[in-house]
């Protein structure tokens, strides 16, 4: 990914009974790539099946956005970036 190549990178897991699992490590790798290139990044939903620290969670549809927000907040805190809006803008 090159700087200025994208206006926004948005990631999300799949919903529904036949959804494929979404792995948090995958989201984090993309987040770090975006950080390197100063590309805005957002997590919209975790999806029905979400893998974190080797554990598979089943997340109800109504909780997927909230859990995605928590995951995004953890990434910002872990990597010490501050959020300027729902769609994070790199400074």
Question: What features would you describe in this structure?
Answer:
The protein has 91 residues and is α/β, with parallel strands linked by helices. It is built from two helices and five strands, in the order E-E-H-E-E-E-H. It has helices spanning 24-37, 64-78; strands spanning 9-12, 22-23, 41-45, 49-52, 55-58. The strands form two sheets. It has a three-stranded mixed β-sheet with strand order 2-4-5.
Q: Beta-strand percentage?
A: 15-25%
* Helix percent band: 25-40%
What structural class should be given to the helix and strand makeup?
alpha/beta
The overall pLDDT, averaged over residues, is 86
Continuous helix count: 2
Distance between the termini: 18 Å
Shape: globular
Radius of gyration: 13 Å
Number of strands: 5
Low-confidence stretches: 83-87
Structural features:
alpha/beta, single chain, two-stranded parallel sheet, three-stranded mixed beta sheet, 91 residues
What layout of secondary structure does this protein have?
Layout: E1 9-12, E2 22-23, H1 24-37, E3 41-45, E4 49-52, E5 55-58, H2 64-78
Parallel strand pairs: 1-3, 2-4
Antiparallel strand pairs: 4-5
Give a quick rundown of the structure:
The protein is α/β, with parallel strands linked by helices and 91 residues long. It has 2 helices and 5 strands, in the order ββαβββα.
């Amino acid at each position: 990914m090159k700087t200025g190549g994208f206006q926004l990178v948005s990631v999300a897991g799949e919903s529904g009974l036949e959804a494929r699992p979404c792995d948090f490590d995958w989201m984090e790798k993309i987040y770090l790539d975006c950080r390197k290139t100063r590309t805005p990044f957002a997590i919209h939903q975790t999806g029905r099946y979400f893998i974190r620290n080797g554990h598979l969670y089943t997340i109800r549809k109504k909780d997927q956005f909230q859990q995605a927000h928590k995951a995004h907040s953890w990434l910002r805190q872990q990597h010490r970036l501050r959020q300027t809006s729902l769609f994070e803008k790199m400074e």
